[in-house]
């Protein structure tokens, strides 16, 4: 096919618009054409003279209002083009240099603008197209983009431009890293915008599509890529193997102060943004940290990994991450997995994903998650909600979890909040503000747990505020919120609830555990048998029990926290012969032995009050009770005529928990 070319060349103004009512001056080569004009004609035969300046309309040279060509008998000439305001658009002293951009002048519109060459103007940005990339989603653009990135990392003063297109590339090849192990300026890459510049994996190997990293480090004081920029970019893993999990979109290591535009992942066979684990001297991630960066958005759709996965512990620090979105997660991974320090995650949206929506964790080495803030999150129908392990000074603010019913499965999330477990027992100084919205569809028994703590006694200074909107009409109560929580053994946690507008304290053990109970008025002190379960003294009921550890049915107390406790007791008798000895104290039902013992003897047959106070060491889970006997030959009743309830009681309170 023969291409039909336009018969007339169009000329443009400084703002890129067609030059309208412009002026062309043509003169002697290497001279000012306005001062030294040459003869021009409208026809090739040179019979129709053309007066200067030649005028333009809508970008075209015109004669009598119609596009036209102009001719000269000279082999060379100079040219000046001006717009309607008399501002110079183009100046050429030698027409034979038209093909050389470094010989064509360019003047930006505006007061104070200076003359430059067209070449210098064009080189303000370096396009990936300049290195031969096609971007049609079919051609292999791997080597072209690699050459472009290599040029940018050695010429960091220049700005790269990643044109609109789908660029098909091999995984694991595109790497931005400094040429030597020193602090190196980051590259500056502009893109065509959200979902317009896309890297598509060809499925050649399981590795990241794009990696930005520093070189291997030889000391804790790392050398980093500093102050770079990557505009909005997309990653497409649709051509990759469905079972892959490590072909991440963007992998980051050893970068400081970068700005990342909105990063979108579609069917990525790994994490959309991945921070790999890389520790110096086994435990220190500092030389490979990702710090002081801003992420304007991270989105994952139908991906096999997290939207953002920080696998380098506190090596991810002091970053700001906005607009994290995860929809239809496929492999048990949600929006954010991070064990970093001092990061802010703001505006998180999760819709129907397998696994945990948000996970804050620690691992072998690399430090403890701390000072992490998660703000404004909508977790709509994740399989699991939020898991926090071994963290300190974290905040979850304005979080909402939506519970939806799945036929044959039950409600998701199966579990809304999990704090610590036996392998990750430490969790402290953290605030969680979580609203729950329960949609209709199932029955109350189908609901997953609201909160769960697994085998930990090291949770301290934690406050949880729950607001529950019960659209299903289940009649959610505080007992439902705490059901299965396993929080009795925790050191310091406070849970406030607002169920359908009813604000209450559901659980509070931030003060030390304490129970104060009264002894049953009809109880008797047995004759002999001290230190046996049969000598347990029955109680009337609880006067005060901060953590609901006293069982009124069995008159026993279950120890909530391992530590040192203060035990106190008092009871009265009357009409007893002098010389009768009473033994009483705290009985460990678990170990079947007395662990605190007092002994007192009557001196008359008047009313007598016996008291005892002492410290005992107890282990979480042990069951204790008040035990007593006498040697007077028969059971002796508690005095109920002359005594009051305050005289017949026992109490137990934690003095200091074990560390």
Keyphrases for this structure?
659 residues, mainly beta, Pectate Lyase C-like, ten-stranded parallel β-sheet, 3 helices, 3% helix, rod-shaped
Task: Give a concise summary.
The chain is mostly beta strands.
Instruction: Bin the helical content.
Output: under 10%
Shape: rod-shaped
- What structural class should be given to the helix and strand makeup? mainly beta
Q: Mean pLDDT, rounded to whole units?
A: 87
Would you write up a description of this structure?
The protein is mostly beta strands and 659 residues long. It folds into 4 domains: 23-122, Tailspike Protein, Chain, CATH 2.170.14; 124-331, Pectate Lyase C-like, CATH 2.160.20; 383-510, no CATH class; 514-657, Jelly Rolls, CATH 2.60.120.40. 3% of the residues lie in helices and 44% in strands. It contains 3 helices and 56 strands. The chain has a 21-stranded mixed beta sheet that branches. The protein has a 10-stranded parallel beta sheet with strand order 13-17-21-24-27-30-32-35-39-41. A 6-stranded antiparallel beta sheet has the order 4-3-2-1-5-6, with no helix packed on it. A hairpin with a 2-residue loop joins strand 2 and strand 3. The longest helix has 13 residues, at 142-154. It is rod-shaped. The relative contact order is 0.05. The model has no long low-confidence stretch (mean pLDDT 87).
